[in-house]
Design brief:
With 193 residues, the protein is of the alpha+beta class. The protein contains seven helices and six strands, in the order ααβαββββααααβ. Strand 2 and strand 3 form a beta hairpin. It is globular, with a radius of gyration of 22 Å.
């Protein structure tokens, strides 16, 4: 069957939804049509994830962007703090961050997986790109960003898969970049006299 997906219908008015703050007009009609088409083709309702494209969801995404922390640089020592353990002074659990090839993610939503007691807890607060690329829990592969640069073709592809999974499928926020110790300026460096 040939689909008229995306074709404008003359018997139905085009629906417009406006976002706050004078953002450009967003046409949700095409997304809804695509969602209906995917549902029909797969036989699974909601298979595209586009049926719920609403004004409210776009406003929620906009508000989330406004309240997210700015990205920053981390040292290996600073990253180690974000291991999900209990913060004694505040009596709260610390966030769970991990780094893949120098990109630091907040994986706190996956605390049961990456946090204390989880199967991947060894990666909490660590650079784990090379270890995940090699599917290894070997401690010698942790906190070594340079190892990500020397991975073989297959392992580099696996690292890219992990990056894509964390950023696009799990939607873990990117918190910043991990700066290797050998790239940090010397502590006795004079900036001005």
């Amino acid at each position: 069957a040939i689909s008229n997906f995306g074709a404008q219908s003359t018997d139905r008015p085009q629906q417009h939804h406006h976002r706050k703050n004078n953002h450009p007009t967003i046409h949700y009609n095409a997304a809804q049509e695509m969602g209906k088409w995917c549902d029909a083709m797969t036989g699974v309702e909601g298979s595209s994830g586009m049926n719920g494209a609403t004004k409210q969801s776009s406003q929620a995404e906009e508000e989330e962007e406004e309240t997210s922390e700015p990205r920053r640089n981390f040292t290996v020592k600073q990253l180690r703090h974000f291991d999900g353990t209990k913060e004694e002074q505040l009596d709260e659990d610390k966030p769970v961050y991990l780094s893949l090839g120098g990109t630091v993610f907040d994986v706190s939503k996956g605390r049961s997986f990456y946090g204390p007691g989880g199967p991947y807890e060894v990666f909490a607060g660590r650079e784990c790109g090379a270890a995940l690329a090699k599917m290894s829990f070997d401690e010698s592969l942790l906190d070594d960003i340079a190892a990500c640069e020397t991975l073989g073709v297959g392992d580099k592809a696996e690292l890219e898969n992990w990056l894509e999974k964390l950023e696009h499928y799990r939607c873990y926020p990117i918190m910043g970049k991990l700066i290797p110790d050998d790239k940090l300026p010397s502590s006795d460096r004079v900036i001005s006299k």
